[in-house]
Amino acid sequence: MGYAQLVIRPAGSGKSTYCSSLYKHCETMRRTNHIVNLDPAAESFDYPVTMDIRELISLDDVMGELGLGPNSGLIYCMEHLEENLDDWLTEELDNYLDDDYLVFDCPGQMELFSHIPVLKNFVEHLKRKNFNVCVEYLLDSQFVTDVTKFISGCMASLSAMVQIEVPHVNILSKMDLVTNKRTIEDYLNPEPRVLLSQLNQRMAPQFEKLNKALIEFVDQYSMVRFVPLIQYILSQIDNYIQYGEDADVKVVDFDPEEDD
Ligand SMILES: Nc1nc2c(ncn2[C@@H]2O[C@H](COP(=O)(O)OP(=O)(O)OP(=O)(O)O)[C@@H](O)[C@H]2O)c(=O)[nH]1
Ligand SMILES: [Mg+2]
Fold first, then answer.
1. Residues of the chain with confidence (pLDDT) below 70
2. Residues 50, 92: contact at Cβ < 8 Å?
3. Is the ipTM of this complex over 0.90?
4. Residue 214 lies in a domain
């Protein structure tokens, strides 16, 4: 059994920073994980890259050789990855043993989570290869400063959740940039009634029925749960993918004598 986190969503929301922090945190805890770059446009990394989509295909090559723009080029690269699940990805995964923990740093384009099935098929492939998979959906904390942004963030997250169909954790990034901590509290554990009233105040009266339906929908799917702390996130994800339930989970070998 292997374990995998798929770190997704908006461009610039802090996915690579999260991967790097997670790597350093696990290193401190003497627990091993491997970070995989799935972004064909990525250029530099703040963590050791264990597997890299750019060895299969890079955005620069696709744009140069096929004359595609950055977004269609990225879709082309990801579709190429999808075509190579059975060879490139399978060969790469063969380098990992039972109990290995992989963290996939993904590109942010919405298309990959709305209607293009690449990541869904990618996850299905990981599952066939005996990986337990969890999605981490990162949202910038500015999404919890305003009710309309909050609802749009919830809907986008929900669309990824129903498309990929694995355990899904919403993470609020860039918490240090929040100036009004009180508003954040309101959104971390929100009352549907309060959200509805805020939404109604922001929108013209003809949207009241739609607002009510949206809030009920979001509430029904328990989407209104975001977690802001890394330690809590890690234990929640471990629980979803049953990491640590077997005795032989991987930790870095160390000599306690050397540890001071
Ligand atoms: N203040 C603050 N900045 C952050 C935080 N996390 C990320 N950033 C900054 O936000 C920018 C984008 O972060 P990345 O980690 O590259 O975001 P990403 O989601 O990987 O971006 P793409 O791969 O381009 O989609 C960088 O300048 C980071 O330094 C945070 O917690 N606080
Ligand atoms: Mg990134």
1. 181, 222-225, 227-232, 234-235, 246-260
2. no
3. yes
4. no
Question: Residue 57 falls within a domain, yes or no?
Answer: yes
Radius of gyration of the chain (CA): 20
Residue 97 CA to ligand 1 centre (angstroms): 31
Residue 94 lies in a domain: yes
Question: Pick from 259, 241, 102, 103: which is nearest to 168 by CA?
Answer: 241
Q: H or E stretch including 117?
A: none
**Do residues 34 and 100 make contact, with C-beta atoms less than 8 angstroms apart?**
yes
DSSP-derived secondary structure for 127-162: HHTTEEEEEEEEEEGGGGSSHHHHHHHHHHHHHHHH
Residue 85 gets which letter from DSSP? I
* Residue owning tokens 């723009």: 69
Domain limits for position 92: 2-139+163-178+225-245
Helix (H) or strand (E) holding 4: strand 2-8
Cα of 150 from ligand 1 centre, angstroms: 19
pLDDT digits (tens, 9 = 90+) for 119-154: 999 999 999 999 999 999 999 888 888 889 989 998
Q: 115: which residues sit within 8 A by CB, 6+ positions away?
A: none
User: How far is residue 172 from each of residues 11, 66, 93, 99, 221, measured CA to CA in Å?
Assistant: 14, 37, 30, 28, 18
Which residues are near ligand 2, the ion (C-beta closer than 5 Å)? 15-16
Compute the distance between CA of residue 25 and CA of residue 224 in angstroms, rounded to an integer: 27
Q: Is 28 helix (H, G, I), strand (E, B) or coil?
A: helix
> How many structural domains compose the chain?
1
Cβ atoms of 15 and 114 within 8 Å: the answer is no
Pocket of ligand 1 (CB under 6 A): 11-17, 39, 108, 173-174, 176-177
C-alpha to C-alpha distance for 30 and 52, rounded to whole angstroms: 24
